[in-house]
Design brief:
TIM Barrel; single chain; 31% helix; six-stranded parallel β-sheet; 13 helices; alpha/beta
Length: 412
């Protein structure tokens, strides 16, 4: 197949041209390609062709691992321009078992966006408060792409998990939260939480754990992804840690770059997200850090919750947001339209950096000969209005629409 006339863009630059796809790979990228006899030709005039996005932090609806929920997540991710999504293991039943990983393998042929899993470093409970490592090598062979650890886990368990990550050449995914500090908190600690009379989550619950886990990442020299960082002090700590371990990746969510805690006013449960939304001052600092390429990864933080779990009093409602099908338009609207970043810079954050974090940048994340044909066609001229009254973005207008997604060279 030949895709003709698109503006071809990736982390290395932008140019108008054609690409040829064969057997799931990008065979040629040239200014003009003459189609062969009987070769399929797709006219992409007026569209942008980019590597599909890679999201390293998604969850299934209500955190319940079923075939139906996985297929639903895959379809929504594809609509948002995501070709590869990494599923966190904290679901029911746990993903950190051979049966959990095998379920992903069984559904490979049915997925639109590809879904792969990471496994938790905590296995079965040996005695109260003591856990064994799961069979990490076996789970990796079956398809697990990383190891997920809570910062509250036993130090020796964390060290051993890091040793496995180094041996298997896979990343650690660190979730940094002091649960004793966040306790029953439901929103960011500040004047607004006091005004609303809601229990709050202090910034310290994240920053102190980031400091500890960054020390582990530096000592072990493991490839480390810090999930959904929301405090500016955390970024400062991790930027310093990168001087000792350049394989640290800082992730935040698109929601923390677009929304603020003010959305929690009137006890709006659509704004109940974890980590909690921050004030405008933090949002502005984070956008600058993205533009300065100090934040490496962006996630849709997909964690859909049923209306029965959201349509409750604020303290009782579940944390979660469901916007993954608009991921690329959200990113394009913020980074390119509002902040005047280039498509090249956006592609680096959405595609190449997450490929590097997973250690697959030798064949994913760029529009380059020999790379996997995981691509999307994006119309920058279209707009989309969010008409879901249960969305935190209700009545927002986003620029751009994903017209077609290709995974392994196949349109999905």
């Amino acid at each position: 197949m030949v895709i003709k006339g698109a503006m071809v863009c990736d982390a290395n630059g932008e140019q108008r041209g054609d690409i040829r796809i064969e057997e799931g790979k990008i065979l040629k990228v040239e200014r003009s390609i003459i189609p062969q006899a009987n070769e399929e030709v797709l006219d992409a005039q007026g569209l942008v062709l980019m590597p599909s996005a890679i999201d390293l932090n998604v969850r299934v609806q209500d955190s319940i691992l079923t075939k139906e929920n996985l297929l639903k997540l895959s379809a929504k991710a594809a609509l948002g321009g995501i070709g590869l999504a990494v599923l966190m293991p904290d679901c029911k039943p746990l993903l950190s078992t051979e049966m959990g990983i095998e379920l992903l393998n069984t559904l490979k042929g049915d997925f639109k966006a590809k879904i792969v899993g990471v496994v938790g470093s905590k296995g079965e409970e040996l005695e109260k408060g003591k856990y064994a490592l799961p069979p990490l090598s076996i789970l990796h062979k079956k398809g697990a792409v990383g190891i997920y650890s809570q910062s509250s886990e036993d130090g020796n368990l964390l060290r051993r998990a890091c040793e496995f990550a180094l041996m298997l050449n896979i990343p650690m995914f660190f979730n940094c939260e002091d649960e004793s500090l966040s306790a029953n908190g439901v929103m960011n600690d500040g004047k607004l939480s006091a005004k609303l009379g809601l229990p709050s989550i202090p910034v310290l619950s994240e920053t102190k754990e980031v400091a500890m886990m960054s020390e582990i990442a530096c000592f072990m020299q493991v490839r480390a992804i810090f999930n959904t960082i929301a405090a500016d002090r955390s970024v400062e700590i991790l930027q310093e840690a990168k001087k000792s371990n350049p394989h640290i990746f800082i992730q935040t969510s698109i929601h923390h770059l677009l929304l603020t805690e003010d959305l929690c006013n009137n006890y709006n449960t659509a704004a109940k997200i974890k980590p909690p939304l921050k004030p405008e001052t933090t949002r502005v600092k984070f956008i600058k850090r993205v533009k300065d390429l100090e934040i490496d990864l962006i996630t849709a933080l997909q964690s859909e919750k049923s209306l029965t779990q959201k349509d409750l009093a604020f303290e009782e409602a579940a944390f979660g947001v469901d916007m993954i099908e608009y991921f690329l338009p959200m990113c394009y609207s913020l980074f390119v339209k509002n902040e005047r970043m280039t498509l090249k810079e956006m592609s680096k954050i959405l595609s190449l950096n997450p490929a590097k974090a997973l250690g697959i940048d030798s064949h994913k994340g760029l529009v380059k000969e020999g790379y996997d044909a995981d691509l999307l066609l994006f119309d920058t001229k279209q707009t989309q209005i969010i008409d879901n009254p249960n969305s935190p973005f209700y009545d927002w207008i986003f620029n751009g629409k994903v017209k077609q997604l290709f995974v392994g060279g196949k349109a999905v």
